[in-house]
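Before the break, one more example. Copy the sequence into your notebook; we will annotate it together after we see the structure.
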Amino acid sequence: MLSSGLPVSRYVSTAVSLTTPAVEAPAINTGLLIGSSTAIDAGERMRRFANISEVQHTFGSDSPEYNGALIWFSQNPRPDHLMVGRWIQAPAPASLIGGNSERRIAEWQAITNGSFAVTIGGTSSNVTNLNFATVSNLNAVAEIVSNAMTGGSARWNGERFIFNTDATGVAASIGFLTPVSPASGTDISEMLGAGMTSHSRIVTGAPAEDALSALAEIDALYSSNFYCVFFPEAGPAEQEELAAYCEAADPVHYLGVSTNDINTLDPLNETSLAYELYQSGYHKTALQYSRHPAAVASYLAFFATTFWRGTNTAKTGMYMRQPGVPPEQISSYQADALQDRNVNVYVGIANGATMAQYGTSISGQFTDTIWGADALALDVQNALFNVLYASGRPKVPQTDFGVSLLITAANAVCGRYVLNGYLAPGVWNAPGVGNIRHGDQLPLGYYIWAPTVALLDESDRAARRAPLITILARCASAIHTVNVLINVYA
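Here is what the structure looks like once it is written out:
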């Protein structure tokens, strides 16, 4: 047999190594609204919505979820999505969430003796003699099924059939639909999308939970999928618990709270939510006084649309517009009372303008500073992780060169935050590190320093830790008020 020739690999050997894709940072510009509507079941807990029409289709236009989302999506520029979570405010039934179902009405009209078996609360029952000859839509199919069931009900939600038990709480249970045994009539368990092969799922009954438990449960499941959160239906005491939770949360979260309590305008009142939160001094909570129960959704959406990888895109909350939020007509005395306790408010100005003031967390620190610091920290964290994660072979050595790779990644992130306007050159008026002392200039707006690897403790060397990398970052801040002196020579 003739050969096609010796392989080229005898002379030049090549190997292909695909680089590891970089990991994205946790969502810093994503909001979470938590409500008690049952449209999201207790098993799913959270769902993403791209626009207000999707929210309206799911929850209807008279729900707290819709009202909050309407304000969120009305902000300019408009956020590109909103997460909505479920608060199990009352004991929840067990549910069977249907999967692939028959949607052709003609197929249903041909069934005049439909049947299936189902076990609810441990008791099995046969549902038989189901006649769909006159149905005109799937809601009518669900109504016939529901009327024939014992201990449960069925409904069509526009996408699938859903079966709920009458009982609620942890004792409630339901199984998949199965054919009646011995066979009787026409089995419709799979047509309903509720059989074991229809991609249906079972949600167990759940006890009622308080607002804090709802946030903690959703956070445990989806912590990196949202940053800011608002809870329109939670009461004042519950909002205090949520604020404490967000202050300590990791990954980080930021809570927005609306209040219409008139006592907020009284500087001497010591019973309002504003007073209680102010005493706590939380950095990760913003409170807004407003007649609208979801006004703070607009406040959060304004910051959530910050493009941190842009140029001059950093924002301040002072002077923001809040579409859909009615401006408050308050006196200077009342405005001072709000400012003294770091409460935000959307107001009308004598020149005809409407704007938000003061753009602060309840601690008095500006929201843009807190939000930006969290965004910077997450981006640095993610950039350094990707240096370690995407390196593969060769490794990042525990040497000064290896540390320089990490510092280079951090430099790139800090440079972006100078470009977007969050950081800026200025004087460092805090204890210094490395070559920077109190009062020195930060010409770049930031300074990154790490000691030599030769100074590492042996325990750190054995654990393969890098030396501590310290970043000094100078916030660009913002101008909110102006004093002008005009000298006129006559």
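Residues 263 and 271 are 8 Å apart (CA to CA). DSSP finds twelve helices and 19 strands in the chain. Try to locate both features in your own notes.
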